[in-house]
Amino acid sequence: MAASTPAEDERYVLESQIRELYGRCAYTHKAHEKMAERASTYLWRVKWAQIILSALTTGGAIGVLFDKSSAIFPLATAALSISMVIVNSYVKDIDPGQDAQIHRDAASDIWNVREAYLSLLTDIRDPAFNLNDLRARRDELQIQLHAIYKAAPHTNSKAYAEAQGALQRREDLTFTDAEIDAFLPGPLKRKRV
Asked: Domain for residue 193, yes or no?
């Protein structure tokens, strides 16, 4: 077996680092997607709680108008009205819809860098690409990523765990040749029928 040259060793080390950076990007991208999903789900639940409480409060108020002898409608309406004030006060200073959009935007920006790292991993295998040029591209991507991370909101451990499940168990970033072939026209398929 032939010994590797210093240039091959340098290329391997650079490739290893870029693989690590790609993996980190993949996880961060997916975590921001999960944060956006969580914020959207929370917004959906809050909006439905507000609608249901409003409808029940209105129903109670109508009941008070038509059944003046019962004490149930006024008490239920008051309890529902207080519940609605509590829910509305709780969500007054938070905006889950805006949070979801901010995480979607961060995920989109990180996706672009992740795909650039993937392209760089492809290029690094081509000996025609100079190591210094590859390092310069890596450094440019690092600067871009730093700017994105600086502006992006934080993710949490739940989103990271969901990202981990999506990437490791459900293999969200991987496709079989057959799956990719299904998207492509005949001449570009790997397995011709």
From this structure: no
**What is the token pair recorded at 178?**
């057959």
Nearest to 137 by CA among 150, 149, 122: 122
Whose tokens are 């507000």? That residue is 50
Write down how long the chain is.
193
Please identify which residue in the block is written with the tokens 């409608």. 73
pTM of this prediction exceeds 0.85: no
Domain that residue 145 falls in: 8-188
Report yes or no on 125 lying in a domain. Answer: yes
pLDDT at 188 over 90: no
Number of domains in the chain: 1
What phi and psi values does residue 46 have, to the nearest 5 degrees? -65, -45
Kindly state the average pLDDT of the residues 70-93. 87
| DSSP line for 11-38 | HHHHHHHHHHHHHHHHHHHHHHHHHHHH
Q: Does pLDDT of 192 surpass 60?
A: no
User: Does the residue 137 lie in any domain?
Assistant: yes
Q: What's the Cα-to-Cα distance from 8 to each of 5, 26, 44, 127, 131, rounded to whole Å?
A: 5, 26, 53, 9, 10
Looking at residue 145, its amino acid is L
> Is 3 among the domain residues?
no
Tokens 């995920």 sit on residue: 107
